[in-house]
Inverse folding.
């Protein structure tokens, strides 16, 4: 695929970065003079106190950096207060509910009510002033409820206005939010709430996603049923009529405690630039998820700046990011980035395939979305449903299409470009991570031609390098290696919550002097990057990030399993799906039909079919349905090195049908297992 695309004249004529020279100049300045570059951008924000220095890179190698040291601010003042005078009546959020009109009606006071005839989606619009008022109201309430600066609040809540306002209210009063994706299980909530010693949990009685009702409160109850002693109160948003158990003294309905008396301004808590803003747990290559910590000043500047330049956001844009707030994409590009940019954005509660695969295009038409940002896994799903869905709608408001989460293959890229964008909207593939806070590599379509499948070139301030197998920098223009970043940028994570050494250990120790992304990449002669995906043991399943070790640990904790190895298999829609090899224990020690496991078959029938289902469900219960393996294959042994390490490389080849060429197997201590596996 050598085709290149340059944005059309109309796009170029109005773009912030409208020529290659401009990109090069700004990029060079961002590296040569980071203080000047970021200092100038930061001047556009409201600070209670200016910084003593822009960047104090005390010791990047140790994972110690500070941006805007000495400065003080509140991010919500920058999201809301600063727009009140000039843009108070401008639409900030257009929220659309999952289902029919009635479900969304009258859900937020002060907002324009649900619109449209019966059967249409409920839509609630909030101006900047209304969002300000809602956030102040919830901020006043939270303070009164006993929430203090520095307290940790877990969110396990749906994509509804109350959730967004409560998140912003946390930031308003200096509380630290920790959002847990609704696809995780009670056990996972417990782990995260315990790890960050949360004092409060915000949830809803139920969530609505397509035809499904998600029992959110029930999962929270399970999480708190043992342990989690730090949690004092649970705030329950009433999303549906469903009755749920409320624990006396602990659980409170939000609508019963947030009264009119909380209306009015809410004094923002003045935060130091390096005070924590939020924690977000993400999967790594080993064991338990890590609490990635982001701080107020640098994150704010970076989230806003990446959105502005990468998506060329202008005052009259309508931006729709389809992510969930349970992921970093939702934090940076639903909650904070759009408000910081003063733009109008869409928040959607449901799923893009409900009631049918035309939902996104219908919403684009109705809300006149101009910038649409989604994930390759969804693009592939929608592509499969055929062109009639997008062709049946007026998509002429669109001017830029974004992608995130995994490499986007050229075929869906071209479909997105041609069928959705009608050949007029550049596709901007954004490469980044929970840890980076915002985009790190993405193309500027008005500056240089974009290539389907390539994430383009580094964003301002990002210095990516490729390392070869020996850990040496590849300095020729073309190369293929480990993707590392050589210096800090404002939005980078500041640490792993509760573990001072872990940041250095996980990201800086294998190749000192660099931040390790964990991804592999190729750089072509134009300097464009092609991300090949994780080289560590992290999977991306439908854009959700999962550690193989996390899933293996759960499998092994099942009474029937003694050993497990998890690998990713390429999947046409999900990008990758989970394939687990398990070795069963002595059948007599376990109940159930596990005895069949030792037979070493991979079949899905008879007794072994039952244990396979049981193990799949077990993983879903322990981590969440996002982690459910597609295949459980019972085997009698796993390929190992002499030192006992599982050779996942071999398993990967086997599941990809590449058994003919297993590569170098001289390190394999038990070659006899190959016969069964292959
Ligand atoms: C992968 C999501 C290729 C990558 C924002 C990274 C991508 C991991 C892309 C981070 C992309 C994300 N092209 N790969 N455009 N975007 N990734 O933390 O492997 O959930 O390391 O952040 O997703 O996932 P995370």
């Amino acid at each position: 695929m050598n085709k290149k695309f340059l944005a059309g004249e109309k796009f170029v004529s109005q773009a912030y970065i409208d020529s290659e020279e401009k990109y090069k100049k700004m990029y060079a300045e961002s590296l040569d003079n980071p203080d000047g570059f970021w200092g100038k951008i930061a001047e556009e924000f409201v600070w209670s106190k200016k910084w003593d220095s822009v960047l104090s890179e005390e010791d990047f190698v140790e994972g110690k950096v500070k941006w805007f040291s000495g400065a003080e601010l509140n991010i919500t003042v920058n999201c809301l207060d600063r727009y009140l005078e000039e843009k108070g009546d401008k639409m900030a959020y257009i929220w659309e509910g999952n289902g029919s009109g009635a479900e969304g009606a009258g859900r937020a006071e002060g907002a324009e009510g649900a619109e449209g005839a019966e059967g249409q989606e409920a839509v609630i619009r909030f101006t900047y002033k209304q969002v300000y008022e809602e956030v102040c109201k919830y901020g006043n309430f939270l303070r009164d409820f006993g929430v203090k600066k520095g307290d940790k609040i877990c969110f396990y809540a749906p994509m509804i206005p109350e959730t967004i306002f409560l998140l912003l209210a946390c930031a308003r009063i200096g509380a630290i939010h920790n959002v847990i994706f609704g696809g995780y299980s009670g056990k996972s909530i417990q782990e995260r709430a315990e790890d960050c010693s949360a004092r409060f949990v915000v949830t809803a009685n139920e969530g609505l996603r397509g035809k499904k009702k998600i029992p959110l409160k029930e999962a929270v109850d399970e999480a708190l049923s043992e342990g989690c002693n730090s949690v004092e109160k649970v705030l329950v948003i009433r999303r549906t009529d469903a009755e749920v158990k409320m624990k006396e003294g602990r659980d409170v309905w939000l609508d019963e405690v947030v009264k009119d008396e909380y209306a009015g301004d809410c004094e923002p808590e003045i935060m130091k630039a390096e005070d924590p803003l939020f924690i977000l747990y993400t999967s790594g290559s080993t064991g338990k998820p890590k609490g990635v910590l982001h701080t107020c000043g640098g994150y704010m500047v970076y989230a806003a700046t990446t959105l502005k330049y990468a998506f060329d956001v202008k005052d009259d844009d309508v931006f729709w990011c389809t992510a969930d707030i349970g992921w970093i994409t939702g934090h940076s590009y639903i909650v904070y980035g759009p408000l910081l940019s003063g733009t109008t954005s869409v928040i959607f509660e449901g799923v893009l395939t409900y009631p049918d695969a035309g939902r996104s295009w219908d919403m684009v038409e109705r809300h006149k979305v101009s910038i649409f940002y989604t994930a390759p896994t969804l693009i592939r799903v929608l592509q499969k449903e055929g062109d009639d869905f997008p062709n049946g709608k007026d998509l002429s408001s669109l001017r830029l299409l974004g992608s995130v989460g995994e490499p986007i293959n050229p075929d869906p890229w071209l479909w997105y470009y041609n069928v959705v964008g009608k050949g007029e909207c550049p596709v901007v593939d954004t490469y980044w991570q929970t840890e980076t806070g915002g985009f790190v590599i993405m193309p500027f379509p008005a500056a240089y031609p974009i290539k389907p499948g390539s994430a383009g070139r580094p964003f301002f301030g990002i210095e990516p390098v490729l390392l070869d197998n020996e850990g040496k920098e590849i300095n020729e223009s073309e190369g293929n290696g480990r993707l590392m970043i050589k210096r800090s940028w404002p939005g980078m994570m500041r640490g792993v919550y509760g573990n001072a050494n872990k940041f250095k250990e996980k990201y800086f120790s294998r190749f000192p002097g660099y931040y390790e992304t964990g991804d592999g990449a190729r750089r072509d002669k134009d300097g464009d990057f092609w991300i090949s995906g994780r080289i560590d043991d992290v999977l991306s399943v439908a854009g959700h990030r999962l550690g193989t070790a996390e899933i293996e640990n759960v499998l092994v904790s099942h009474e029937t399993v003694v050993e497990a190895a998890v690998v990713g298999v390429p999947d046409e829609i999900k990008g990758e799906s989970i394939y687990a090899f398990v070795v069963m224990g002595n059948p007599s020690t376990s109940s159930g039909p596990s005895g069949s496991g030792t037979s070493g078959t991979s079949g899905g029938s008879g007794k072994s079919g039952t244990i396979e289902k049981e193990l799949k469900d077990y993983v879903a219960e322990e981590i969440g349905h996002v982690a459910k393996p597609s295949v459980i294959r019972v085997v009698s042994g796993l390929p190992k090195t002499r030192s006992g390490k599982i050779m996942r490389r071999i398993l990967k080849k086997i599941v990809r049908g590449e058994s003919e060429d297993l590569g170098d197997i001289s390190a394999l201590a038990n070659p006899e297992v190959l016969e069964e596996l292959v």
